[in-house]
Design a protein that fits this description.
Blueprint (H helix, E strand, L loop, with lengths): L7 E4 L5 H12 L7 H6 L10 E4 L5 E13 L5 E12 L8 H16 L9 E4 L2 H4 L5 E2 L3 E3 L9 E4 L9 E6 L4
Parallel strand pairs: 4-5, 7-9
Antiparallel strand pairs: 1-2, 2-3, 3-4, 3-9, 5-8, 6-8
């Protein structure tokens, strides 16, 4: 394993948009906009207070994490709000050095800080590797959840203070506009 780096984290809104796009292309490939996660998010704006950029000791952008408002629409048509975590992008040459862990911790702290007094934070969902994201409290989502595109059910993960309140069936998609 590589030595752990000490990242500098800033709000994603303060990072260079062109550098962010280059990093996302490097991490996910040029066809990333066709991925199912993009269909789930739709055209929603990111939740800026939950989005961060990580810089290395040389001041280079090496990681980003974003979050979006999405919904799980149950069979009765009720939309249940969720936060979609991602994309989480780390420069391939800097993976395994703690940048992803730092970004996940910053976002989890931000989610805790913006919740209503006494309320549990909104459940979070992502598409990713269970062995990695499990250390942050994510577990496989109910098999009755579907996505608007191809996905591997074991990679659809959820983190919730009380998973029992979530519907066992539903379709993930953008949060409904008003």
């Amino acid at each position: 394993m590589n030595d752990l780096a000490i990242p500098t984290l800033i709000p994603l809104a303060d990072a260079d948009p062109a550098a962010i796009e280059r990093l996302l292309d490097l991490a996910f490939g040029p066809g990333r906009h066709k991925r199912t996660a993009y269909a789930i998010r739709g055209d929603a704006a990111c939740l800026e207070a939950l989005c961060f950029a990580a810089y290395d000791e040389a001041g280079e952008l090496v990681g980003t994490i974003q979050a979006y408002p999405v919904a799980l629409t149950d069979p009765a048509g009720r939309a249940h709000p969720l936060i979609m975590v991602g994309p989480v992008a780390i420069h391939p040459a800097r993976q395994g050095q703690g940048f992803g862990r730092a970004l996940m911790a910053a976002q989890a702290s931000a989610i805790e800080s913006v919740r209503a007094d006494g309320a549990e934070p909104l459940p979070q969902v992502l598409i990713g590797d269970a062995p990695y994201y499990g250390r942050f409290g994510f577990a496989e989502a109910p098999r009755g959840w579907t996505c608007p595109g191809p996905w591997e059910p074991e990679r659809l993960l959820v983190r919730a203070a009380n998973p029992g309140v979530l519907p066992r069936e539903g379709m993930l998609g953008p949060w409904p506009s008003r």
